Amino acid sequence: RTVLACPAAVGIAASGEWAGSEGACCGAIFHCVCIESNKSCAVVFYDVSTEAISLKALPGGIDFTTTDEELALPAKEDLLAMFQGSVQ
Questions:
Q1: pLDDT > 70? residue 87
Q2: How many CA atoms does the CB half-sphere of 78 hold within 13 Å?
Q3: What digits encode the pLDDT tens for the residues 43-69?
Q4: Which H or E element spans position 2?
Q5: Strand pairing of 40-48 and 2-7?
Q6: H/E/C letters for each residue in 28-54?
Q7: Sorting pLDDT into bands at 50, 70 and 90, what band is 86?
Q8: Which pTM does this prediction carry?
Q9: Is 62 exposed, middle or buried (0-12, 13-18, 19+ CB in 10 A)?
Q10: Which of 75, 58, 84, 78 is nearest to 3 (CA)?
Q11: Going by DSSP bridges, is the β-strand pair 2-7/30-33 parallel, antiparallel, or unpaired?
């Protein structure tokens, strides 16, 4: 098993389906500093089986974005600090 950080839009909605947006996510959302700017992106964490992980981009995949809808990647150091602190 491993833990993955995913865009909040990939969170689970109250219906049990994929949220599709940060607003529809009913799980814990964390805001992580982005690499490219002083902005942040919304992140959810999942504990998953390593057998379920694919390195191929899937059709309809959702990217990390800032609140301004700019593509951005979370900063690794901030994700790690967040996971070791408030997430656990």
A1: no
A2: 15
A3: 999 888 988 888 887 788 888 888 888
A4: strand 2-7
A5: antiparallel
A6: CCEEEEECCCCCEEEEEEEEECHHHCC
A7: low
A8: 0.80
A9: middle
A10: 84
A11: unpaired
